[in-house]
Amino acid sequence: MQKKIAISVWTNCGRDLICTGLALQGLFLAPSFGLGADRPKPIRQDKPIATDSNEGSSFRLIQFTGSGESDGSGSISSAFKKAGDSISGFFTSEPRQPQVENDPISLSSMPDEINANVYLSAARMMENSGNFEGAERQYKSCLEKFPKSRLAQISYARLLHRTQRLDESLVIYQMADKDHPKDPTICNDMGLCLARMGRKGEAMAKFHQATLGAPEDPRYRNNLAMVLVDAGRPDEALSQLVYAHGKAKGHFNLGFLLYRKGDHDGAVANFEAALQQDANLTQAADMLQRIQGKQIAGQDPRTAPMPKTNTMFISDQPRQTKSSPVVVPSQSSKIPPAPESEPPRLLPPVR
User: Fold this and answer.
1) Full domain range(s) for residue 321
2) Confidence band (pLDDT; 50, 70, 90) for 13?
C-alpha cells in the first residue's frame, strides 16, 4: 500500500516539474520569436527637408528621424545620408570649365562660314566623275555665297563651255570680266568662247588683251596666232610666235599651224626656216619627212590628213596647269607685237 502511494506522489511531482520546466523554457524562447520582445516604434517625419547638404546642389536629402530610435537606427540613418550625398553630388549642376577659344580638338569648334574652296572641291570631284548637274549646283551655291569668287566664275564658265552652253558661259565670263578686269585667264577663256560663237572680232580683242596682261605667257600668243593664221595673216602670227618661243620654234609653230590649215607649201617653208635657225630641232625635220613622204607617195599634200593632236606648240617655257592670278605686265627689252586693226575673217574651233 505504501508502495502505491509513493509511486503516485512521484508521478504527480514529476508531472509538476515537467510543466514547470516547459513554462520556464517558454519564457526564455518567446523573445527570440518576437512574441515578447519590444518592437521598434514607427519612424515619424517630424522635421522638414534637411539643410545640411551641399549649398551648390539643387537636390536635398530627406532625413529620417524619430524618437526612441533603436540601437542600429543611427548607423542606418548615417548610411542613408552618405548615399544621398553621393547621389545628390552626382546630379548637382556645377559650373562648366571655360572653353579655350579656337580649340582645334573641340567638337564645338566650327568655322563661322564655309570657305569657297569647299564648294569648288566638291564641284570638281563631281565634274571629274561626269556628274555635271551636281557640279553645276555646287558652282551656283558657291557663287550665291561668294558672287565675286574668281575661281568659281572661271570654273563654272568653263563647265558651261565644255557642255556646249556657250551663251550661258559667255554670261559668266562677262560677269567675271567685270569683277576682275584685264585678268589674262578670263580674257583668254572669254576669247575662246567668243571664237566658237563666231564673234571673231571680239575674240581677237580678248586674246590680245590677255597677251597684254601676261606678255611672257606663251599660251595666249598661241591662241592669238591661231586666229591670225586662219585669218590669212601669217606674218602677224609669226611675230607673236617668235616673241613667245624664239625664231626657230616660232617658225616651227607657224609651220604646224599652216600644215593643219592645209597650206603645206607654207608649212614646208617655215619648217626649213626653223632648221636653218636650229639644225637640232628634230620636230621640224620629222614634219618635213612626213610631208615629203606623202608627196613621194603621190598623195596631194593639200588633201593629206590632219594631225590628230589639236596643238603641237613647242616652247622653252613650261606650261601652267592652274589658273594664275592677275599678272602685272613685266618689263622686257622686247617689244610685243600687236595685231593689225583688221579683224580675222575665219576662226577654227579651238578645243
Assistant:
1) 215-351
2) low
**Residue 317 placed within a domain:** yes
Q: Say how many Å lie between the first and final Cα of the chain, rounded.
A: 153
Tell me if 331 sits within 8 A of 271, measured CB to CB: no
User: Tens digit of pLDDT for each residue in 33-84?
Assistant: 555 455 555 555 555 544 454 555 454 444 444 544 445 555 555 655 665 6
Q: In a 10 Å sphere around its CB, with 0-12 CB exposed, 13-18 middle and 19+ buried, how is residue 91 labelled?
A: exposed
One-letter amino acid for residue 316 of the chain: D
Inside any domain, residue 255: yes
CA distances from 229 to 32, 101, 212, 218, 339 (A): 124, 62, 20, 16, 12
Is the full-model pTM beyond 0.70?
no
Q: Is residue 265, in this structure, part of any structural domain at all?
A: yes
With CA atoms as reference, report the closest residue to 76 among 94, 63, 67: 63
The closest alpha carbon to 49, from 62, 32, 39, belongs to 62
Residue 236, in any domain of the structure:
yes
Q: What is the CA radius of gyration of the chain?
A: 51
CA distances from 66 to 80, 83, 130 (A): 15, 20, 82
